[in-house]
Design goal:
Length: 314
């Protein structure tokens, strides 16, 4: 069973004066067809940069992204067209990502136009079908983005991403800007579409609350590095990494009889220009030990399929 997407030692550094900002500092992940992998971490942990590099909106500093076995960075710009059709992205802010002067017909039809697929009536029909697919009325076709609510705009963003029948979609915090009441609707829509169209998702989020419902597996990232990876169940019931434990403690539990202590992390995420030595999480870790400042913890399979990078496990 070969993965649809295989990310190998992916690094993305940005030059800052004479230094470099290590936004993504060694990402290794296999994503299988039909699954959803959640990518979680606070803002500034490199999640969006990872998403943008995996879809080749950014060129990597190092590493590979194999899509169906081929490194997408090996393609010349002129050869990227078929990759652009197969790999799409849904963005956090549906308003900022939609051109306010374009009508829905043009917004959703634009990817089709760029790739020279269909025209005139046929394209209009395709856009109407896409609107229905995401739960919007085809009559919206002549409207502008400002005429829609946040949730509707995100549905338009999703329809646009689906226009080319992609296989893999990177969803970069698609629900973070939406009201809580709307979030579940959009998550459910993404789940339905996944089933219907056989989609594979990388679902980026800054907390675990919705991610644990949509994801089959979850990767927790901190300062551009991988902290923990496992199936969602194991990660949420038995989190191993102190960072995951803290993120999880912030998720409200619907059952009031279950008590869980909130772990509040001190301070902010340190600068990715000068990350801490050893374990990058040590400046905020409630369980930090002496060894944590001198040695980078190894990535270790602690239980079958449950990986962690932390000196507490060895
Ligand atoms: Fe905390 Fe040390 Fe584990 Fe890092 S390696 S998470 S500092 S205990
Ligand atoms: Mg982001």
């Amino acid at each position: 069973n070969s993965p649809l997407v295989e990310i190998k030692n992916l690094k993305k550094y940005f030059p800052v004066g004479s230094q470099s900002l290590k936004a993504v500092d060694g990402l290794d992940l296999k994503i299988y067809a039909g699954e959803t992998v959640g990518l979680v971490g606070e803002s500034g942990c490199g999640k969006s940069t990872a998403g943008r590099t995996i879809t080749r909106l950014y060129e990597p500093t190092e590493g590979e992204v194999l899509f169906q076995g081929k490194n997408i960075f090996d393609y010349k710009p002129g050869e990227m067209s078929h990759i652009r059709r197969e790999i799409q992205m849904i963005f956090q802010d549906p308003y900022a990502s939609l051109n306010p002067r374009m009508k829905v017909e043009e917004l959703i039809g634009e990817p089709l136009a760029i790739h020279g697929i269909s025209k005139g009536k046929e394209r209009r029909k395709r856009v109407e079908d896409l609107l229905k697919l995401v739960g919007l009325s085809p009559e919206h076709i002549t409207r502008f983005p400002h005429e829609f609510s946040g949730g509707q705009r995100q549905r338009i963003g999703i329809a646009r991403a689906l226009a080319l029948n992609p296989k893999f979609i990177v969803c970069d915090e698609p629900i973070s800007a939406l009201d809580v009441s709307i979030q579940a609707q959009v998550v459910n829509l993404l789940k339905e579409l996944q089933k219907e169209m056989g989609l594979t998702y990388l679902f980026i989020a800054h907390d675990l609350s919705m991610v644990k419902y949509i994801s089959d597996r979850i990767l927790v990232m901190y300062l551009g590095r991988m902290m923990e990876l496992s199936d969602s169940d194991s990660l949420t019931k038995d989190p191993l990494h102190p960072y995951t434990q803290a993120l999880l403690s912030a998720v409200p539990i619907p059952d009031p009889t279950i008590k869980r202590e909130r772990i509040v992390l001190k301070g902010d995420v340190p600068s990715p220009i000068n990350p801490p030595s050893g374990c990058v999480f040590r400046t905020r870790c409630p369980k930090a030990m002496e060894i944590c400042s001198s040695a980078v913890p190894e990535w270790k399979e602690q239980k079958p399929g449950h990986y962690v990078a932390c000196h507490l496990y060895w």
